[in-house]
């Protein structure tokens, strides 16, 4: 079942994983984010977007650094967006992406960092 981060309140979620048992919705939300980050291409894309000038990156500038086609980059960006890790804004045939810092922080905090 595909779950969107929008269906669960990120602010209400994400206690530390080792602090006590997670509820099913908390575990699902955390797993969605960690699953998205478990792929090396998506992890690189997230780091490229975070490092981009002004905090946004055009999908057209992400193909070369990861060595993937436009369709593959688009697929990976969609998975990052579905996990709530980035936002996407369509501009013509390209997409501008930005990291959602609160979502990344929630994943980091869940591991006690």
What would you say about this model in short?
The protein has helices at 24-37, 40-51, 63-66, 70-82, 101-110, and strands at 56-58, 86-91, 94-99. It is an alpha+beta fold.
Distinctive features:
5 helices; Arc Repressor Mutant, subunit A; single chain; elongated; 3-stranded antiparallel beta sheet; alpha+beta; 113 residues
CATH class: Mainly Alpha
| Count of discrete structural domains | 1
Radius of gyration: 14 Å
Give the overall silhouette: elongated
Mean pLDDT: 85
Describe the structure.
With 113 residues, the chain is α+β, with helices and mostly antiparallel strands. It has one domain (17-110): Arc Repressor Mutant, subunit A, CATH 1.10.10. It contains 5 helices and 3 strands. It has helices spanning 24-37, 40-51, 63-66, 70-82, 101-110, and strands spanning 56-58, 86-91, 94-99. A 3-stranded antiparallel β-sheet has the order 1-3-2. Helix 2 (40-51) crosses helix 4. The longest helix is centred in the first third of the chain and has 14 residues, at 24-37. It is elongated. The termini are far apart.
Topology:
Blueprint: H1 24-37, H2 40-51, E1 56-58, H3 63-66, H4 70-82, E2 86-91, E3 94-99, H5 101-110
Helix pairs in contact: 2-4
């Amino acid at each position: 079942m595909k779950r969107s981060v929008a269906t669960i309140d990120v602010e209400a979620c994400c206690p530390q994983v080792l602090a006590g048992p997670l509820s099913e919705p908390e575990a699902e939300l955390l797993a969605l984010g960690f699953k998205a980050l478990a792929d090396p291409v998506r992890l690189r894309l997230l780091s490229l977007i975070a490092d981009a000038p002004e905090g946004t990156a055009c999908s057209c500038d992400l193909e070369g650094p990861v060595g993937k086609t436009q369709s593959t980059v688009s697929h990976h960006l969609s998975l990052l967006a579905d996990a709530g890790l980035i936002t996407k804004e369509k501009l013509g045939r390209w997409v501008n992406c930005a990291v959602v810092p609160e979502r990344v922080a929630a994943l980091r905090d869940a591991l006690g960092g």
